[in-house]
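User: C-alpha cells for both sequences below?

Assistant:
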Amino acid sequence: MKALKKQLKFDLNKYDIKHNSIETVFIGGGTPSTIKHYEYEEVFEIIKPYLVEGAEITTEANPNSASQVWLENMNKYGVNRVSFGVQSFNNDKLKFLGRAHNVNSAINAIQRANSIGFNGINCDIIYGVQGDSIQSIKSDLDMAFSLPITHLSAYSLTIEEGTKFFDRSSVKIDDEDLSYEIFDYIDKNCFKQYEISNFARDKKYESKHNYGYWEYKNYLGIGAGAVGCMNSRRYYPNKSIEEYISNPTNYEYEELSNDDIKTEKILLGFRCSNGVEKSIFTEDEMIKVNDLIEHDKLYLNNERVYNKNFLLSDELALYILS
C-alpha cells in the first residue's frame, strides 16, 4: 500500500492531473476487501482534490471478507458503488470453482451493502461451467433478481493459462445458444444489456468507469499488474508484488499507432451501446458497413454506427477491417 501511494502521487504529478478532473475510480484487480479499510484512508485523501463532484467510485469485494465494518468505512471514504464476485448462488458450483464463500455469505453481503446505502450494487455471475444448464443459470439469476442489486455482470467462463482449470477443457461449455437464452432471460427481468457482459436496472446504474475505457478516455493504472493509458500510450507497472514494492514507478510502455486505436475503438464500440463514430471509417470500410446495415446487423443513428448483437462484435469488426 505504501508503494501504491508512492506510484499514485508520482502519476498524478507526471501526467499533470488537474484538480476536479477524475470522473471515476475503480478499486479492483483481485480482492480489495482483504485489505484493512484503514489502509485505504490515505489513498482517498490523496485523490480527493482531483475528483469531480459526484465521482463514481467502485470497489470490488469478496462476499466473505466484505464485513459490515469494511463496507461502512469504504462508504465513509467515498466509495458509492460495490461489485460482489458472487459467481453463483449454488454451493456445489462455488466449491467446483474454488470460491471461498457460500450462498448465505453472498446474500448477506449484498443485503449489508444495501442497508449501508451504496448507490449501486453489482453482482457477478459466471455461466458456461461444466454441469450448467439454462435451468441452473435461471435459478442463479432469479436469486440475484430477488436481491437489492442495480447491476448484473454475466460472464462466460474464461480459462486462463496458469490456472487450475487450464488443462481441463471439459470444465467449460461453449454454447452460443445458451448465451442468447441467458441474455433474453435477463432482459425479461428488466435488466437492460448495454455491453456484452453487463446489464443495468436503469441507465443511471450503468458503470461510468467502463464507459471510460470504451470511449477511449485517458486513465491511470495504479498498483502491481495494473494498466494505464495516457495520450495514446499504455503503461504497465510491475506484475510481481516484490518488484513493484521495490520500484513502483518502473513501467513497461506500449505505443499505440493510429491503426491500433482505430481498431480498438471499433471493437469496443461494437461490444457496447456506445457505437462507433461514422467518420472513423474509410470509403471502402463504409461499403462494408452499409452492407451490414442492409443485412440488419448494424444500424446508423446521428452519424454513429451501432451493433444490434454484441455477441457478433468481433466478427463484424474483423469483416469491416479486413
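Moving on to the next sequence.
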Amino acid sequence: METIPQRPLKVGILLPVAEYRFAGRTPRWSDLLAIARVAEDAGFDSLWVVDHLLVRAPGQPPEGVWECWSLVSALAASTRRIQIGTLVTCTSWRNPALLAKMAETVDEISDGRLIVGVGAGNTEDEFRTFGFPWEARVSRFAEAIHILHALLRQGRVDFEGRYYQMRACELRPHGPRPSGPPVLVGGYGQRMLELAARYADLWNTYYSHTGNRASGLAPLLAAVDAACAAVGRDPGTLSRTASVLVGLPGHGPICGVAAPPLTGSAEELAEEFRAYARAGISHLQLRIEPNTPAGIEQIAPALALLDRADG
C-alpha cells in the first residue's frame, strides 16, 4: 500500500458505476474489474465507488447505478495492493451500526485497504424514490457518524438519539486494524464541516465545488480550518482530498458536470496535480473520460511524471 517516495500526493480512480458511464454504455462487473486491475498495475493508489441509487440529471434520461457496497466488497477480494474507498456512502440508507459491520468486514477482506467515505446525501429524488426520509438528513448524519465512529474506534456504543438507538452494541469480530479503517467525510455546510472536524480522518471536496482546479480550493480549505478551530482540533491532523475531472483526447460528451474538465498533456496534468499537493491536498480521486482501461493507460504517463523527483 506504500506509494512511491517522490509522489507528492496519492492519486486514485473514480470508477464508472452508472449507466452510460463506460464509454457511453453500462459497465458490467467484468469492465469494472478490468479498470481496477489496470489501475492497480499502473501504480494508482486507490479505487473509489460512488453511492447512488438512481440519478436523474436535468434534461437527461435516468441513470441506474450499481450498488456501492456490493462492488466495494468484490473489489476488495479481487485486488491486492490498491486502496478502496466510498465517495461517499449515504448514512441514511443503511443503519450506521450495520454500516460499521459492513466496513469492518470489507476491511478484513481487503487486508486493511478500505477508506470509509460517508455523507448525508444530496439528492432528494433518490431518497423519495427509494423510500428514505429526506427531512433532517444532517441531523440523522450527526447521529450516524457518532455511532459509526464509536464502533470502528472503540468497538462498542450505547446511544439514545432521536433517529437511532443502540443498546450495548459491539462490533465483533475485529478486522486487521485495531482502530478500524479511516473515515472520510464529504460536505460543505458549517454543520457538516464541524462533524468532519470532530470525527473524520479525511475530508473531501468534489470538482463541482472547486471549479475543477487547484486554484479554487482556498476558500474551502479555509472553511475546514475554521471548523477544526471550532471543535478544538489541530487543522493539520485532518487530511484533505479532492476529486478532479479529467478529459482525455477523444472523450465524448460529459453529462451532469458543473465544471470544465482538466485537459492537456501528461506534463500539464502532472503539474496541476502537483498544484493540488502544494495547496494541501493529500489524495486525489480522478474521474477520467473516457473511463475505460484504455483511458487508465492513457493517463498513466502523468502519474509517472508525478513520481519523478525533478518533476
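User: Anything stand out in the second?

Assistant: The chain has one domain: 10-134+180-306.
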